[in-house]
Each structure stands twice: as structure tokens, then as C-alpha cells.
Write a structure and sequence with these properties.
Elements (H helix, E strand, L loop, with lengths): L1 E5 L5 H17 L7 E3 L2 E3 L2 E8 L9 E8 L6 E9 H9 L3 H12 L12 E2 L7 E2 L2 H10 L7 E2 L15 H4 L17 H9 L17 H6 L14 E2 L4 E2 L4
Parallel strand pairs: 1-4, 4-6, 5-10, 5-11
Antiparallel strand pairs: 2-3, 5-6, 7-8, 8-9
Helix pairs in contact: 1-3, 4-6
């Protein structure tokens, strides 16, 4: 169970966005675990500290999102942070993308992209063709593209918070967990659900959205015609998590 700890005061509308994202992920993955004490707070799921505050104004740092404390038995998150700049959030709201950004960034708090290297699931890191080697994800990628290779293409551009922490946009287009906000619908595919299984969660594939790989024409209509573009999500920092035993 995801518990949201609102560190700063948020409007009802903004709280609703975070609440809906938490409910969606709780339906996709099982975040319920044995009780564990974190700083005197007994947690049975994942606690996420949520903050929207002044950081550096519009178009600066968007914020930070990721796990902060990991369980000693599974190395899965027991606590994380989602902190965003108020001015940038206002821009996301005006552009109609705030809801998808929060759903996307909460995935990183739960371990998508942020725990892959720790769990030894990236091949070819630092190269132009990094790949994700999780068994369930390879299976789902093969269902999307039988000739796509023996591992899943990862983002090979962007900053430290983007490169090798997302699916490759030039292949997966508007899928929710590429490193860019592309298209209008941004579906959560079975491939992304599989990535959570690969890092150790129980998952429900029935909660995934319909998704097929886009054609070159469809990519062009989304505005995806090159590997390097302006990337709002690249402006999000990733905290370095620690395992509870080491706190």
C-alpha cells in the first residue's frame, strides 16, 4: 500500500493527482510487505514524502523523485520522495501533462529505472545501445516486436535522470515510461508492468493499457523524429537510496 505523506500543503486538486497515481500503481503492483520500522514509523508498504514548493522558478530544476530507503530483504523501496517546483508544476497543469508526469515519476519512486543498475539488469551501459535484461520484460518486448533483439532498448540520451532509466522513445513513442512526454494518451504497457516484476514485485498485467509499437509515421506525428529533444523529465533529480540496514 502506498502512503502519501504531504509534507507541504497542497490544494485538493493537486492532492487528487497524487492520490490517483498512488491508487493506479497500487492496482498494478503489490506494494504490501511485512511491517518494518522506519524512524519510528511502522510501514507495511511504501511511504512517499510529497512536496510542491519554490525551488528555482520556471524551467529550472523540476524537482526530484525516487526511492530513499530500501527494504533489507528485497531491496525494494519502503520510502521515497517526490518534490517539485511550484512554478514548473503550474506550467505542467496549464499544458495538461501534470497527471501523467506524477504517474510517471511515482514509477521511479517505486523502482522503475532507479533500481535497475543496482539489480544488474542493464547491459551495455554507457553505450549507444543500452538494453534492459529482465526476463519478464524480454518476453513482453518479444510480443511487441519478435525481431527486436534479445533485450529491451533503453534510453541512450538525456541526463543522469533519464538515460538508461526509461524505454527508448524512438522505439516506444508515447508509452508512459519513456524519458519524454510524447503523444496525448501515454499508455502504461504490459512491458512496463513486466519491468516491475523483474525487480521483485508481484504484478497484475490485466491493469496494463493496450499498446502496440508505433510506426515511423506515428512517431513523426508525435513529434519524435530525432534522438535528442527538449526533455522536461531530464530536469528531475534522483536521490541515492540506502538500504535500511545501512541507515
Amino acid at each position: 500500500m502506498i502512503t502519501l505523506n504531504y509534507v507541504t500543503e497542497l490544494s485538493a486538486g493537486r492532492r487528487g493527482v497524487f492520490d490517483r497515481a498512488a491508487a493506479r500503481w497500487d492496482n498494478v503492483i503489490n506494494t504490501g510487505f511485512a511491517p518494518i520500522d522506519v524512524d519510528g514509523d511502522v510501514l507495511t508498504g511504501v511511504r512517499i514524502d510529497v512536496m510542491i514548493e519554490d525551488i528555482d522558478g520556471e524551467s529550472g530544476v523540476l524537482g526530484q523523485a525516487g526511492p530513499t530507503i530500501l527494504r533489507p530483504d528485497t531491496d525494494l523501496p519502503v520510502a521515497g520522495i517526490m518534490q517539485f517546483d511550484d512554478a514548473d508544476v503550474a506550467n505542467l497543469e496549464a499544458g495538461g501533462s501534470f497527471e501523467d508526469v506524477i504517474l510517471h515519476e511515482m514509477a521511479h519512486v517505486l523502482g522503475f529505472g532507479t533500481l535497475w543498475s543496482r539489480k544488474g539488469l542493464i547491459r551495455g551501459t554507457g553505450s549507444m545501445d543500452p538494453r534492459f535484461t529482465g526476463t519478464a520484460s524480454i518476453r513482453e518486448y518479444a510480443a511487441l516486436d519478435a525481431a527486436g533483439g534479445d533485450a529491451v532498448p533503453l534510453s541512450n540520451t538525456g541526463g543522469a535522470g533519464t538515460r538508461e532509466g526509461h524505454w527508448r522513445e524512438l522505439i516506444f513513442g508515447d508509452e508512459l515510461l519513456t524519458g519524454f512526454l510524447s503523444g496525448d494518451d501515454r499508455p502504461l504497457s504490459r512491458l512496463s508492468v513486466a519491468a516491475f516484476e523483474d525487480i521483485g514485485y508481484e504484478v497484475d498485467y490485466a491493469r496494463a493499457d493496450p499498446f502496440v509499437l508505433p510506426s515511423f509515421r506515428e512517431l513523426a506525428l508525435m513529434g519524435i523524429t530525432e534522438a535528442v529533444r527538449i526533455c522536461d523529465l531530464c530536469r528531475v533529480g534522483r536521490p541515492e537510496p540506502v538500504t535500511l540496514d545501512h541507515v
